Every structure is written in C-alpha cells, then in structure tokens.
Structure prediction request, 98 residues.
Amino acid sequence: MDPLAVLAYGAEQAPPLIGIGIGIKCYQFVWNDDVRRLTKQPKLSAIIQWCRLTLFGHIMRMDDNADAKRFLLAFPPADWRRQLGCPHITWLSTVQQD
Prediction:
C-alpha cells in the first residue's frame, strides 16, 4: 500500500494502515515527521506545490487562445469587488509565491 495515497486520501484510516507497513501499532503515539521519515515521503505541502507549479507550466505552454490560459490570465473589471467571505488570495498569486 502506498503511504502517500493513505496520507492524501484516507487520513481517517491512516494510523492503522500506515502501522501495518512500517511497524507502528495503532495505539502508539508517533510524530508526523517520524512517519514521513520512515515512509520516505516528502511533506504533503511540497507535493501540492509541485503539482500546482506543474499545472501552471502546462497552462503557460498552451496556445494563447486556449480557454484555460485566457481564464487564468484574465483580469476582472476595474469596478469589480470580491464578495464578503471570499478569499483575497488567488491561485495565480499562490503560484507566484511558490
């Protein structure tokens, strides 16, 4: 069983399933860093960042008329404001921070 798949998609089942592969009992307290070291997996945030940058590179190599590229690079109208409760950070600004 792939430990990354367990961590990414089945977090509620992680302790018993990971324990099977690396010798950790379900009642033992184990730090997340120890589990990552034992499974030789990078941090999930690093994996997500890599996927985000890969997708951005794929979109940027598209033709300029591709819908995905036009939507990503489009600017909202000058008088447009976000609704209350909407995040202020965009996906593109997150990519720029990466």
Notes: The helical segments are 3-9, 14-22, 32-39, 44-60, 67-73, 91-97. The first helix runs from residue 3 to 9. The chain is about 55% helix and 0% strand. Residues 45-97 form one domain.
